[in-house]
């Protein structure tokens, strides 16, 4: 085998090795990106400190009111508003159809 042929074969082998390494690295990076995206999705679903603080404050307020009428009034008010809105929406829907 001539030196020129030997060099050509070695260059070809090295290029193939580089292509295989590149493909392997791309698969590895794709896997890392997938893992990173799943961590990002998971962290977005976690409660924030501020949200937990607000929730704790609301629970404390409910404990203080002890289920008194003042504590139930906003809840009853919200239920009434939703109910009235549903009745009006249903009535308008029936009138237009």
Which tags fit this structure?
2 domains; 97 residues; 0% strand; single chain; mainly alpha; elongated; 3 helices
What does this structure look like?
The protein is mainly alpha-helical. It has two domains: 1-48; 55-97. It is built from three helices and no strands. The model has no long low-confidence stretch (mean pLDDT 85).
Q: What's the average pLDDT?
A: 85
- Helix/strand-derived category reads mainly alpha
Number of domains: 2
Shape field = elongated
Task: Please report the number of helical segments.
Answer: 3
In whole angstroms, how far apart are the ends?
A: 90 Å
Beta-strand percentage?
A: under 5%
Query: What are the secondary-structure elements, in order, as H or E?
Result: HHH
Helix content: over 70%
Brief sketch in words of this structure:
By secondary structure, this protein is mainly alpha-helical.
What is the fold's blueprint, element by element?
Layout: H1 3-45, H2 49-65, H3 69-96
């Amino acid at each position: 085998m001539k030196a020129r042929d030997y060099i050509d074969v070695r260059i070809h082998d090295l290029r193939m090795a580089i292509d295989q390494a590149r493909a392997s690295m791309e698969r590895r990076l794709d896997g890392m990106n997938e893992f990173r995206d799943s961590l990002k999705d998971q962290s977005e679903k976690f409660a924030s400190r501020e949200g937990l603080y607000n929730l704790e404050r609301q629970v404390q307020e409910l404990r203080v009111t002890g289920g008194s009428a003042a504590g139930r009034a906003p809840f009853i008010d919200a239920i009434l508003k939703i109910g009235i809105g549903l009745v009006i929406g249903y009535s308008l829907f029936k009138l237009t159809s």
